[in-house]
Design a protein that fits this description.
248 residues, mainly alpha, Rossmann fold, two-stranded parallel sheet, 6 strands, 56% helix
């Protein structure tokens, strides 16, 4: 084992961190949230791999793990390979996957109960042809003015993303906003999911889970803001006296 700052990591990972330049090393060693912006071939993946290794070996408790998310399968595979060369292998504590794969398998399918009966199995991916057909149906039912459903798909996608993120949509046509809302309901109705639905439904599940956790916490004694836990009564008797002597 060798030291990398105040944290202890494996010799192989420590040597890799030492090879990074100053800015890369600063990004890896920073303990808070970090955003790295750099051009192609600047070592972003190398920095990310070292960061993941450091988190697993020095920062994240053994009972927790790290999700390394990318936008392509090729990038996820490359990160896994580089981590393996550093002696960090995928396990129950490490997942390397695309954003959409992680949302589908680690949240939607694993925590399906958070959606109640809305999310059916097996989930089927919505093809482009079905996407167009559902958009056209929703536009028609909402009474929106459109010429070709194919041309309206980017706008419907934008509205759906803003709705999922809780962003204001008052600047859009009300009927097309209604069509965007209806689109996601139709997906659930037919047991379909697309890339945007994977992320949006996962966000919904996480928000529901956090809300339920807060509710459970506030229901516990001392969990409500402003309340105080009762102090434990002082121990007495032979056991307390023995403990007192040992502490001296």
């Amino acid at each position: 084992m060798t030291a990398a700052g105040p944290r202890r990591v494996s010799r192989r990972l420590g040597a890799e961190i030492e090879k990074l330049d100053e800015k890369q090393r600063r990004a890896v060693m920073h303990r808070g949230s970090t955003v790295v912006t750099a051009g192609p071939g600047s070592g972003k993946t190398r920095t990310l791999v070292a960061k993941v290794g450091l988190l697993l070996q020095a920062d994240v408790p053994p009972s927790q793990g790290v999700a390394c998310l990318t936008y392509t399968n090729q990038a996820a595979l490359e990160v896994s390979r580089r981590l393996a060369r550093l002696g960090v292998h995928e396990s129950t504590r490490l997942t390397c996957a695309t954003v959409h794969s992680w949302c589908l398998n680690q949240i939607l399918r694993r925590y399906r109960a958070l959606h109640g009966d809305e999310l059916r199995e097996p989930l089927e991916f919505c093809s482009e042809d079905k996407f167009t057909a559902i958009v056209e149906r929703c536009l028609r039912n909402s009474g929106a003015d459109y010429r070709y459903a194919e041309y309206e798909k980017p706008l419907i996608t934008t509205i759906r993303r803003r709705l999922a993120a809780g962003v204001d949509v008052s600047g859009f046509d009300d009927k097309k906003v209604a069509a965007a809302r209806a689109y996601d309901k139709v997906l659930l109705e037919y047991g379909l999911v697309d890339f945007d639905a994977m992320v949006a439904r996962s966000l919904y599940a996480l928000l529901i889970r956090c809300h339920r956790r807060r509710v459970r916490t506030s229901a516990r004694p001392g969990g409500v803001r402003g309340s105080r836990r009762r102090p434990r009564p002082a121990r007495c008797g032979r056991r307390a006296a023995t403990r007192s002597r040992r502490m001296r």
